[in-house]
Amino acid sequence: MPRIFVDLLSYTGTKGGMETYTRELYRALGRRDDAEYIGYASREGARLDLSWFPGRIIESGISGENRFAWARGELFAVARAARREGADLIHAPATLGPRASSMPTVVTMHDMLYWSHPEYMSTPLYTAPVKWMEKVAARNAARIITISPDSADEIVKYLGVPRERLDVIPLAGSAPVQVDRSLAGSEGAFILAMGNRRPHKNWGALVHAISRIPADRRPRLVITGGRGEDPLAPLVDELGMRDWVDLRGWVDDDEVRHLYATTTALAIPSFAEGFSLPTLEAMSAGIPVLLSDIGVHRYVGGDAARYFPPADHAALARLIDEVVADSLIRDRMSQDGLRRAEAFTWASTAEQTRRSFDLALGAG
User: Fold this and answer.
1) Distance between CA atoms of 188 and 357, rounded to whole angstroms?
2) For 250-290, what is each residue's pLDDT tens digit?
3) Are 332 and 281 found together in one domain?
4) 197 in the same domain as 146
């Protein structure tokens, strides 16, 4: 039975999709009994509920929110701790990992946005260091897991990783909370958007699109995920949309459940993504999904979603107007989305991940 050491330094309760991936993957891996797992938790993560992790937790004492302490931990501390624990393999599920390790390492790289779209990075001072850390983690890794064909192509292109060391393993679709969609529309029509305010998310396109829809049939727009002073607020004021746009911060499960139950549709206008976990979560709840027309969204949404060019505010406005007005379209999208989400399961993600671990152990 292999002893697998899991790098949880990035797990702090604030990282969104990568933390959902880590949590749901290891919840599913825990249903198997063919490996021993040891989690190496950040100082912040150790204070959270980690009951989903299927093994022993070691508190590293390293902050996952202090960028410098976290970077040193990723590069050096993880490998040393894994060696002390007699681990057979390290899994780093949040894109970065050890610079060198005495046992094989598998790194899950979610995207290459620092390489492919540096203009959208909200922390440009960190772009060069993060790119370097990604390069050394990839060089040390026995295998790299990534979550879409688009990301795999970019890992080959930017990091020079041979295709045979890559495993494309998609994430899965499950609503984060139980949702009663019979309440849809009970609070009036509104479009839901959820995520951080990094520039590549392109949330401003939704504000522009809503402003183009005549007021007598304009839906509200709710955008969650902001922290501190919201950078979208000036645009909302400039377009006179304060009465129509609700900018919310981080929301808990109860609020997510309420928003998922009552929303008309979910919209994601991103210029680039590594995957689209919110698409699968929304589809699995029966919510119609409107997506920017980029490769990874087509990979996830298939024929169940409706698409728009991310820079075309008029096209997005027409699509929102059409979907809000037509219940038959929404019903069809809801049913198609439920079927699409069923094709992505955490059990399958876990099975393919375990296969990647076995390949790395064989190579090691």
Assistant:
1) 48
2) 888 899 999 999 999 999 999 999 999 999 999 999 999 99
3) yes
4) no
